[in-house]
């Protein structure tokens, strides 16, 4: 491991490994416990592949009762636990720890109930995001949030990261599309938050859990909202001579009161990489490309297409195509959805950043990013959820070249600082994980962070769930309870900071 520090391994747990493995086998018999180095290797990292670590042991439960028994056992024996869905997190959220049980939720792969009358489905957390849409599309329904990783990522992971996708501008993120969860606490107790109904009494703990990155409990069931597929969906592919013109176009579309189903933007490097990957006819002589999708009744779509086209021409668009068939519309999206793997061809390694800015700051941020690219001597290809102001700069580097990973991480940190400086936030949809953990104080003051930690303590008093992620400092909950921040200075300055 390089760079970021993780909590020190608990030597007492490491020393008891054989006994712990045997105890876990008693809870999950058969092939549900993987303890060999070879068997655990596939779990050593998530999609933040610069960081790898073998876990203490991998456990693959298949029932809620097994999850509850594992967590109760770990709580009683002070053993850390890292929940994992499909392991596609880009922020290191499911990175194992040497002394922690890696709790893989892949066997929770069933759709339990499809309820069109209540417009929802109840699914297990290991079901893939796309698997939900596949299960209902023959009846004209779908699940709206669509991360580019949707073929692989699990709905449990989407809940963990509050994931988004190209259609979240109009339809919202995971938090707007999940109605309820079943959650197993670290004590082994099982709670249900929300359900098929729209609102519940009491504190809105469902919102606290969505986006909590495996730090508060293990999700064993998810109730998702289903939407009726729109009658029509059509997309425009619009090329611009500068990124500023494209940014201006996005601001004017939204400013005019139009909320497209999605507005995505790619810069020259990303366009070239995507086109080489999928060959769908992206223009190669433009600096920025927008994909704007409109959906709804046919007449509304046709009207809005005309409005968007007029705005785009006014913003100096140099190429403009409107999809004439479903096949062509999907072709427009194919390049964007494959942009990350496509950029992988430009360079041996890349870091995918994820910050959000107010839309109007896009030109400024792009020009500052170009300066940073020169400063660090590293190329950056840009893919944005432009409508949401959510940036995904892909920093290209070669891990085999001395110092390039460090430079890429420093470059990425500067981009995220820039996002906060212009009034944005550290993450749009990929979560904090280990990747942005040490940047949290750029965005939150000590009081903010202490209050968030108190929420963590209310769920996980011993700090056993996914430690080392999200929060830049370690505090025992008892100490946190006595903690008073005075003059912006935290007490216990000698506590381990990792
Ligand atoms: C090529 C590529 C494209 C991507 N595109 C997008 C995109 O467009 N939008 C987007 O938002 N993300 C995107 N991602 C990031 C990633 O796919 C999402 O964050 C996804 O939600 C992770 O799901 P997962 O099942 O892989 O979860 P994991 O990586 O396994 O885990 C993610 C987090 O959730 C926690 N977790 C997982 N399951 C549970 C559970 N059952 N209970 C409690 N906690 C749990 C983990 O502890 C971890 O903190 C992309 C990733 C890749 C590799």
UniProtKB/TrEMBL annotation:
**FAD-binding PCMH-type domain residues:** 51-229
Q: Does the keyword Oxidoreductase apply?
A: yes
Q: Does the keyword Nucleotide-binding apply?
A: no
Q: Which InterPro entries match?
A: FAD-bd_oxidored_4_C, FAD-bd_PCMH, FAD-bd_PCMH-like_sf, FAD-bd_PCMH_sub2, FAD-linked_Oxase-like_C, FAD-linked_OxidoTrans_Type4, Oxid_FAD_bind_N, Vanillyl_alc_oxidase_C-sub2
Q: Per its Swiss-Prot or TrEMBL entry, what cofactor is needed? A: FAD
Q: Give the matching SUPFAM superfamilies.
A: FAD-binding/transporter-associated domain-like, FAD-linked oxidases, C-terminal domain
Q: Which Pfam families match?
A: FAD-oxidase_C (PF02913), FAD_binding_4 (PF01565)
Annotated GO molecular function terms are: FAD binding; oxidoreductase activity
| Record keywords | FAD, Flavoprotein, Oxidoreductase
Name-wise, this protein is FAD-binding protein
Q: What is the native source organism of this protein?
A: Xanthobacter tagetidis
